[in-house]
């Protein structure tokens, strides 16, 4: 879809925090929007490519998200699996700030 979804307000997601957008909202899979420490917002598929973990519950470190279950790190910018045990890259999604609104473009 090329239509953006308003998923929340910028003020609801401070730096270092994440916002889980459920499948019912995205129309596809659950997607998490991350507010990285560089001030940028990024979006990835919420489910870890290694197992049944929600990356929304992980830890943001610089431009990476660390899986809460086994600690694999993914690049927030590219979705690349950076550390074991994950070996499969995840998907990124476009997210934009429009005034106070967070807009997500599910891929
Ligand atoms: Fe994420 Fe294993 S489920 S690293």
Automatic annotation (TrEMBL):
Could you cite one Gene Ontology molecular function of this protein? 3-phenylpropionate dioxygenase activity
Residue ranges occupied by any Rieske domain in the UniProt entry: 5-104
Q: Which residues form a coiled coil?
A: none
Q: Which InterPro entries match?
A: Rieske_2Fe-2S, Rieske_2Fe-2S_sf
**EC?**
1.14.12.19
SUPFAM superfamilies listed in its UniProt record = ISP domain (SSF50022)
Q: Protein name, please?
A: Bifunctional 3-phenylpropionate/cinnamic acid dioxygenase ferredoxin subunit
Write down the species: Citricoccus muralis
